[in-house]
Design brief:
There is one protein chain. This protein is of the alpha+beta class and 884 residues long. It has six domains: 109 residues, no CATH class; 108 residues, no CATH class; 167 residues, Immunoglobulin-like, CATH 2.60.40; 115 residues, Sandwich (Immunoglobulin-like), CATH 2.60.40.10; 105 residues, Immunoglobulins (Immunoglobulin-like), CATH 2.60.40; 230 residues. It contains twelve helices and 54 strands. It has a seven-stranded mixed β-sheet, with helices on one face. Strands 25, 27, 28, 30, 32 and 33 form a six-stranded mixed β-sheet that branches. Strands 1, 10, 11, 12 and 13 form a five-stranded mixed β-sheet that branches.
């Protein structure tokens, strides 16, 4: 039996939260014109007719007549007062009437200010909501299309409904709200979910209220009850602290002002956070609002209410208190989260801040968040204090980066030349340049030094090119940002001379930003040259006995040392190879030496290479020798008869086309499956292409060996593909071409190589190119079911990463309520396998982690997704198992 708890439905004229500028002050006349309503009505009350005039009650509610014109009207004592709020003395101080008067249709106009009579309500958070009541014969039809703005108005009203029922705790105001109901948990309190639980009886419109109804099970009362909720058309506010988007194309002020352009240790600054409140411009996206307001601009509409919302201001990620601190609940006391009251226009919050003790970075970040669920600064639990009538939150967070005075300088030094080649007794000259980085914010003092190392360090006098750069008696010089100070120097080479050493150290601060460039050296010695060798082999990967392999040595001489060519002795030695030749190299020249070897024994074979200049010193001896190793394996023998297979699957037009090519292999080679391509032609115009799979069998794999007979592999693949052969995939989305995935099949035990247990497959996506790769190991070929389930799961990953948009992925994240990103896309892949490919679970293929398992609550989502993406789902058939 259908019962009702509350049903107060009147098409009431409501218009709350909004004021208009003087240019649009004729609100009563506009409401009457918009609703095609008369200025007065004659209605029958009891046994007689009376005339009632249209008027605006508080909150701009359009009412006919007065409460005193309703016979037997109830009045209750409350904290509010109808007569003082409306400026009409009816002898009822501090009371509210049950009815304000009459509606435009002549019905009694219920007052939202009158205390609710019902006392047996269930909190909205605890109601056992009934999904899609039209499918349960509780109402006739599902909702017609409704504008996004109307849904936001409905959500804002439902988010506050528990307060009207008396379920708002001062410290936990939102605990009993609809958005904490299990039906809407995990971020599902949105228009998509509400559309499945609430029947919209009448859309709220400017000046006219609407109503929604929901049904819920009441085991305590033994039946299904419904609740009809009046929805007041409401202006949605926008509280912003950042100029995104630019409001009406105007230049907006700085919202978070740190109060200084440069922060210094030990000083305190007075900062300001400016919060701008106003009517959000999305109001004019609502057709009904646009028709009513006409050419009125949003900037001419102003909020008539004030909103208390939580906010936070942080310095270097730590929340601080503003000058006037009003805590947000008990938690706000300890965490410095505060409440701020915002109305139309600008609200300024002042705060004092300073650099944290011991702070040493070149800049510091201040940020602020207001009434946001982004949780950048405000923890999750403060969402209960958020005013949910604001739904546009992209401009509720802002930050500013402030330079600090403790920016470390980056001094550097350069010696020209960086090497001297001379004999003892020879007089040499050089240049040294000292520099302070260009982007340093202030002048710094540095200590300059120059020494000649000959047994011990000997001071070399600096001769400034510009006399103004002469160091003082302590060797100190003041640098402006970007200064390069150049000095000449001279010395005489000694028998034990080793190098010239230049140093620069900051004096005005204790540290340098990068110590690696504060020292430079110029070697002193006989002329030398740098010869180096690099070793490689090709092809790469594992080689088999009897294969030929090229060993290459690249010998290079640096652009240094004596002019002309010098002799270089090159040696390459190893199993079956003994190369020893002398070549001539000029400055900067390279020479490649190729040798071919044939290895007939399994194992790891090393080849050593060396290159040394003849008759001259090598400047860098560490790079004159290198080696390369060639791993060699014996081929795996198998039944050659298994390779004489040729399979071909051709579905009907628009279905899977599979061509499995197998060529005869010799008994001395191991076949390998590689390079399987999946995809359609980029030139396709009809949006969805057949699934094309091409399998090529090659004779020598450098990665693995087959442990399963070839015919079992081919059987599992061909029959497994039949399970999903009807699938069509979306190669195009709008004008965006989606690269199909490349499938690689590896034999052997890939899992043991990866040290990850026994995985059957891996998926890789390159976000830069949009290319995808699916890798199947030998375990995916155990049976047709396993192959179909594994491939379908990996193609689900492809849909997630390569096909869906960021907005579509965010929608699914909210749908699941999961925080672990991997759990989200693993659950998505399982859903794709179940509902798009309709592939069976593979044997032993259930996810180990509970959150990775498919959740049947997502079933409707995947049904709709397949339609939206234009995916034709599979028609699962029966297969015969492959006989091992």
């Amino acid at each position: 039996m259908l019962k009702r708890i509350l049903c107060v439905i009147f098409v009431t004229a409501l218009f709350a939260g909004l004021s208009l500028s003087p240019a649009h002050a004729g609100l009563l006349e506009d409401l009457l014109a918009a609703g095609n309503l008369p200025a007065e009505r004659t209605i029958r009350v009891g046994g007689e007719f009376i005339t009632v005039k249209a008027r605006l009650d508080r909150s701009n509610q359009l009412v006919y007549g007065l409460p005193t014109q309703v016979p037997g009207n109830d009045w209750k004592s409350t904290k509010t007062c109808w007569q003082s709020d409306n400026g009409v003395n009816v002898g009822r101080p501090n009371q509210e009437p049950r009815y304000l008067g009459y509606t435009g249709q002549g019905d009694l106009f219920s007052s939202e200010w009158f205390p609710i009579d019902a006392t047996h309500h269930v909190p909205p958070s605890d109601r056992k909501m009934i999904e899609e009541p039209w499918d349960q014969d509780l109402t006739d039809t599902e909702n017609l299309p409704i504008s996004d703005y109307t849904w936001e108005v409905i959500m804002a009203a439902l988010a506050e409904y528990h307060k009207l029922l008396g379920f708002a705790d001062p410290e936990f105001p939102g605990l009993k709200a609809f958005y904490h109901n299990p039906a809407f948990a995990g971020g599902k309190f949105n228009k998509e979910t509400l559309n499945r639980y609430f029947k919209v009886l009448a859309e709220p419109r400017p000046g006219v209220a609407g109503a929604v109804r929901h049904w819920h099970n009441r085991s305590d009362l033994g039946g299904i009850f419904y609740d009809t909720i009046a929805i007041q058309w409401h202006v949605l506010p926008d509280f912003k602290v950042v100029d995104f988007p630019v409001y009406h194309g105007e230049i907006v002020p700085v919202y978070l002002d740190p109060g200084t352009e440069l922060a210094k240790p030990g000083e305190t600054y007075r900062g300001t956070l400016r919060i701008v409140g106003g009517v959000h411009e999305s109001i004019l996206t609502d057709p009904a609002a646009r028709d009513f307001f006409g050419a009125v601009e949003v900037k001419n509409l102003t909020l008539s209410e004030q909103y208390d919302v939580p906010a936070g201001i942080a310095v270097d990620g730590k929340l601080i208190r503003p000058v006037e601190f009003r805590r947000a609940g008990f938690d706000g006391e300890a965490l410095n989260v505060f409440m701020v009251r915002i109305g139309q226009g600008e609200t300024v919050v002042e705060f004092d801040w300073s650099l944290p003790e011991g702070y040493s970075k070149s800049e510091i970040t201040l940020d602020a968040e207001v009434n946001s669920t982004g949780n950048i600064l405000l923890p999750d639990r403060f969402n209960r204090y958020r005013d949910r009538s604001e739904w546009y939150l992209l401009n509720n967070y802002t930050k500013v980066v402030v330079p600090t005075s403790i920016v470390l300088p980056d001094f550097s030094v350069e010696l020209i030349p960086d090497r001297f080649e001379a004999q003892a007794g020879q007089a040499l000259t050089g240049t040294v340049r000292y520099k302070l980085n260009d982007d340093h914010p202030q002048a710094e003092t540095a200590w300059l030094r120059l020494h000649h190392l000959a047994g011990s360090e000997h001071v070399i006098n600096l001769q400034p090119v510009d006399p103004a750069d002469a160091p003082n008696a302590q060797g100190h010089v003041v640098f402006q940002p970007g200064d390069v100070k150049e000095y000449r120097y001279s010395f005489t080479v000694q028998a034990n001379s080793q190098k010239v050493i230049a140093r620069i150290n900051p004096i005005s601060v204790s540290h340098d930003k990068d110590w690696s460039n504060n020292r430079a050296e110029a070697l002193i010695g006989q002329p030398c040259t740098d010869v180096r060798i690099a070793m490689s082999r090709s092809p790469d990967g594992v080689r088999y006995t009897g294969d030929t392999t090229k060993v290459a040595a690249v010998v290079t001489r640096a652009n240094d040392g004596p002019a002309g060519s010098i002799p270089v002795r090159v040696r390459i030695t190893g199993p079956g190879l003994n190369y020893d030749q002398t070549i001539n190299l000029a400055r900067g020249e390279s020479r490649t030496i190729n040798q071919v070897v044939t290895l007939n024994d399994p194992g790891s074979h090393a080849y050593q290479g060396s290159a040394w200049p003849v008759g001259i010193e090598d400047c860098v001896p560490a790079n004159n020798t290198r080696s390369v190793t060639i791993p060699v394996q014996a081929p795996v023998q198998y039944d050659a008869g298994d390779s004489k297979l040729s399979h071909e699957i051709r579905g009907s037009e628009g279905k899977v086309f599979v061509n499995l090519i197998s060529t005869v292999a010799t008994p001395t080679r191991t076949p390998a499956f590689t390079d399987i391509s999946i995809g359609g032609e980029q030139g396709d115009s009809w949006g969805v292409h057949d699934l094309d799979i091409m399998l090529n069998q090659h004779f020598r794999s450098e990665r693995w060996e087959i442990a399963t007979p070839v015919n079992i592999w081919l059987c599992s693949m061909t029959k497994g593909l039949r399970l999903i052969e009807d699938v069509r995939l979306p190669w195009w989305r709008g004008d965006r071409w989606i690269p199909p995935p490349i499938l690689h099949v590896y034999g052997g035990d890939l899992a043991s190589r990866m040290r990850l247990g026994q995985p059957k497959a891996f998926y890789y996506y390159d976000p830069k190119t949009g290319n995808s790769q699916i890798t199947l190991s030998a375990g995916a070929f155990d049976s047709p079911d396993v192959f179909a389930a594994t491939l379908a799961h990996e193609l689900g990953h492809w849909i997630w990463f390569a096909v869906l948009t960021d907005e579509e992925r965010d929608h699914y994240r909210k749908l699941t309520g999961l925080k672990d990103e991997r759990a989200i896309w693993e659950r998505f892949a399982e859903g794709a396998r179940e509902f798009i490919f309709q592939a069976p679970h593979g044997a032993g293929d259930e996810p180990v982690v509970e959150e990775y398992r498919f959740n049947w609550a997502d079933a409707g989502y995947f049904k709709k997704l397949a339609v939206e993406l234009g995916i034709k789902t599979a028609n699962q058939g029966k297969t015969v198992a492959c006989v091992h």
